[in-house]
Amino acid sequence: MKTVEAAPGGADCWRWWLKHLDKTRHVELKMDQALLLIHNELPRTNLTVYWASERCYHCLLEVLVRVGQSRNRGQRSTAAVAVSTQHGTILQLNDTLEEKEVCRLEYTFGEFGNYSLLVKHMQNGANEITCDLVVNEKPADSNLPVTVAFLIGLALIIGISFLRFLLSLDDFSNWISKAIHSRETDRLINSELGSPSRAGVLGGDVQPEAWHPPPAPRLRCVDTFRGVALVLMVFVNYGGGKYWYFKHASWNGLTVADLVFPWFVFIMGTSIFLSLTSILQRGCSKFRLLGKIAWRSFLLICIGIVIVNPNYCLGPLSWNKVRIPGVLQRLGVTYFVVAMLELLFAKPIPENCASERSCSFLRDLVSSWPQWLFILILESIWLSVTFFLPVPGCPTGYLGPGGIGDWGKYPNCTGGAAGYLDRVLLGDDHLYQHPSSAVLYHTEMTYDPEGILGTINSIVMAFLGVQAGKILLYYKDRTKDILIRFTAWCCVLGLISAALTKVSENEGFIPINKNLWSLSYVTTLSSFAFFILLVLYPVVDVKGLWMGAPFFYPGMNSILVYVGHEVFQNYFPFQWKLGNTQSHKEHLTQNIVATALWVLIAYILYKKKVFWKI
Length: 614
Description:
By secondary structure, the protein is of the alpha+beta class. 46% of the residues lie in helices and 10% in strands. The protein has helices spanning 13-24, 144-168, 170-176, 184-189, 220-237, 257-281, 286-307, 327-344, 363-366, 369-388, 416-425, 437-441, 452-474, 479-501, 519-542, 552-556, 558-567, 584-607; strands at residues 2-4, 33-40, 47-53, 62-67, 77-84, 89-95, 100-107, 114-121, 129-137.
């Protein structure tokens, strides 16, 4: 196979283009598609064209189109078809009658491009067949809008940072306005508003009571990290410009969309420990805290089932089709288990840990041995059920997507034990009906990425976030010790991921998989989370080089922003009628504007001291 960058020339050019236009007028291209014209010049040979995506692991080839035989030598029989441009494409041309392979090629088509595949005998008269790919019209650069948006965002960040630098200069600041008090926001942050700090409050959204002593200096990196995850979550939930890398991976692997939810769970675990420690130090009884934890978990689950639900349009009482699992439901269960675990085994933190021998190396780990024992038992349950639970019609320990994956051997085994458990306990009608595995693997089974079994690993991820909180609190004012421990956790978890995955997407013992919330998915994303804290903590809290804006503001009002963006996503100004629904640029503009509006809303609410706490 060879690729040519031009259409036929000479005397045949006009006749070729007339045929070309006649074939293309019947194919309407959509976003992430290109036009492929398949010209069969082989006499007495009908062709069947099969295809598969390069991202589809061990997938059966599917019929793309059939092309009739050429009537006479030198003439062409042509078929036109739309092909995907999201990933590389595998094309295999077979002789329809004999079912033998004629040629096979791999190519990455460009969006709205126009291509011809010429199938003919070699010009030297031999029986050897050649398949040449001709580029008739060059594709559009579909990634250009993302590049432009990134550069504009970078320019805004640099401009705002430069302006803040100028405002930090006394002469310039006085010249602008003596009325501007640049430290008012910091005073507010360090007083009674906001989410977890070294001495924060429960859940991160609760305000300290007026009669309590003022809390210690805040940890802005926690709210900033939460805000980063939340802003990315809003953006990808709104569509992410319809780019494939802003959507969830079809099965194994990672995209940008797969990063945000586990990071949110991780930082929730950090907040749980910081908040519980603070409120216990202020004399609140464990029994009272138990009630608060149970009530908050109950509200999260109720909001997720009744309000933030794919079947919301059917009404809150449409229980016959309501989706039981979900993002907020998983957060509620995870919050309850991890908070209860820390509440049961809570220990007093010495005021000056640096001066006590008991606060030496690994104190943050040793003090948590009962919690670690519980987490290890939970993980053992996940491993046992995943790899040893018998699933009817499926191999034991199956981790694949089913459908056309694994050469089509297990079409009804999507998710293995995880999917089977949800279908048995919850029922097909109460699960997510459009799993991401349907995109490439054409699965027909219902599967919920927030199912029962995966919740075990979300608890593990939140507990790793608790460990980050313990490092921040146990070694406060000892920046070097904190950074060393963040680095150690990052490396250890990264090595575990490398061992589980064999540093590959599909060939490991336990691949990285968001749908399953696999163990390697948890260790990999936790490694990334510790690395982000490793960067944010010194930059935001120690050196004060960045105050966390604008991510800090939605991080302070996370529940309101999440629920609000889900409920109002189909309403103006978060969505409007697009002039061209097949344009990445228009979708990207709409999604960026909608996300920016929620950041602006969070900023205004922060300034107005309005926080939604549950």
